[in-house]
């Protein structure tokens, strides 16, 4: 887990930079439209579209990485739980019975 912290911080910083660049480009586009110079508007629009596309691709990539990391982590946790149950069957039965009793009592109160 400690290994993921620098990666997460780096991703957060990159996201901040991407959004900052996109914001600057949009501001430039807004300022360019105030001039009503057709060539200037076209150039700013192209830059804004390019940065928007780049930012979208980076966000999608990060989302896919986060999904993959979460899926791997859940898989590892499920494997660890399965191993615990195999190593400690009676403890697992006791825990399951206790949880079942608590849930039964909570449902019974309704």
Q: How does this structure look, described?
A:
By secondary structure, the protein is an all-alpha fold. It has one domain. 94% of the residues lie in helices and 0% in strands. The protein has helices at 4-35, 38-87, 89-109. α1 runs antiparallel to α2 (38-87) and α2 packs across α3 (89-109). The longest helix has 50 residues, at 38-87. It starts with a helix and ends with a helix. It is found in: Cell inner membrane. This is DUF883 domain-containing protein. Belongs to the ElaB/YgaM/YqjD family.
Write the layout of secondary structure elements.
Layout: H1 4-35, H2 38-87, H3 89-109
Helix pairs in contact: 1-2, 2-3
Summing up helix and strand content along with how strands pair, one would put the structural category as: mainly alpha
Give the strand tally: 0
**Helical proportion?**
over 70%
> What's the pLDDT, averaged over the residues?
79
Low confidence ranges: none
- Which sheet architecture does the biggest sheet show? none
C-alpha termini separation: 41 Å
Beta-sheet strand percentage? under 5%
Helical segment tally? 3
Rg of Cα set: 26 Å
Order of helices and strands: HHH
**Overall spatial form:** elongated
Quaternary organisation? single chain
The total number of structural domains is 1
Key phrases:
single chain; mainly alpha; 3 helices; 94% helix; 110 residues; elongated
